[in-house]
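Supplementary Methods, section 5.1.

A reviewer requested that the exact input to the structure prediction be made available. We therefore reproduce it here, unchanged from the version used in the analyses.
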Amino acid sequence: MKKSIFLILLIISSLICSAQLQVKEGSFKKVEGFVNINTEKMFDDNDRPYAVLKIKTENINDKQRRELSFGGDAQTFFETEYKDGEVWLYISYYATFIKISHPDLSSTEFCFPYDMEPKRGYELTLVNKSALDEAAIISIIDQRLENTSNIAENPDDFGYIVVKTGSLEGATIYIDGNEMEMKTPFVSDPIKKGPHKIKIVKDGYETYQDIVAVDGKGMKTINVDLKKIKTTNPHRHKGFVFIPEMSVTVDINHHYEDFTPIAITPKLNIEYMFGPHLGLGVGSGAMFFAKSLSAVPVYGQFSVYFTKRKASPFINAKGGYAINVSTFSDDKYYNYVYDNFNITGLFASVTVGVNIRRSRIGITLESYGYEERYELTSFALQQYHSGDFTFVGVTYSYIIPFSKK
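The structure derived from this sequence is encoded token-by-token as follows.
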């Protein structure tokens, strides 16, 4: 009697979702490099090799996952292997469609968009979609009450938390810091009455947090429209990034009559991003300047991004040493005969600009040390001189994350 009254009160207080199986659109794909090497499940009953279909699941618990059944046409054979969070289906590679069924979650059919290959691996995602329905609340709560002995004895001490995120599904729920297996739309197991901390997390959306009070014999429904994060640059996440870079600069403290003092410097950089604002790394490049004059700068660097926005001001600083590769000689320059003009010594660079998604463009100021030996022809004297080249120009670079987040 107590159980029936409790169910009626729950139904009156709110509605939740009935389940329906669907294959997530666009989720079917070939898994490159994955092959069937299970010798016990290598061939079907027609002595043809199996393909392997990894079926990932969303909003389906382990018990429901093991109750899934599979079918196809009369010539298709199946063998199943249950993994953590997914089912591996060994399937005849010539299958044209698959039917997936569950006694409580209806069924769905999926036609393969192209022919599979023998022994190869494929995957798709099976989703427990939902629609508002009164019958679902009876079914879900009835199952949970049967598996929870103390709720039937003390219904006044327990309630439920329901979380709906509108058309957005698959958000992760945390109750009192514990991650729930079921994604949104979500209904909790029986939970003791009183205040509980709720957190709703979805990649690309702002995290929602609140404290809700659960009443005995009742249901607390949370309707949340998660706000999409529009300002975060997804390419500046924590981790390593690879940054190819190209600079075109002009020497501003030396003047030559017979050539344009332009330097072209491609660089390769690796940075570790500590988040969206700071990266530390190393790099090297090749500096081409003044006909055959060239050098290889080797340096450490850091980058600072001032906002999380997709378009953010940034500053990049480099410091290291330039190694001479070739020399430049000039036959005559006023009273001098130049010889062994080498770029070598300390190297420094500062770039200020804007980062838009993965691209960075900025104004660069660079300094290279150089060594020069020259002869004064009038007096047949040799002298040595060292100094610094100063370059100003533009730089373009591109951020490539080592892994996607």
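The longest strand covers residues 336-356. These observations are discussed further in the main text.
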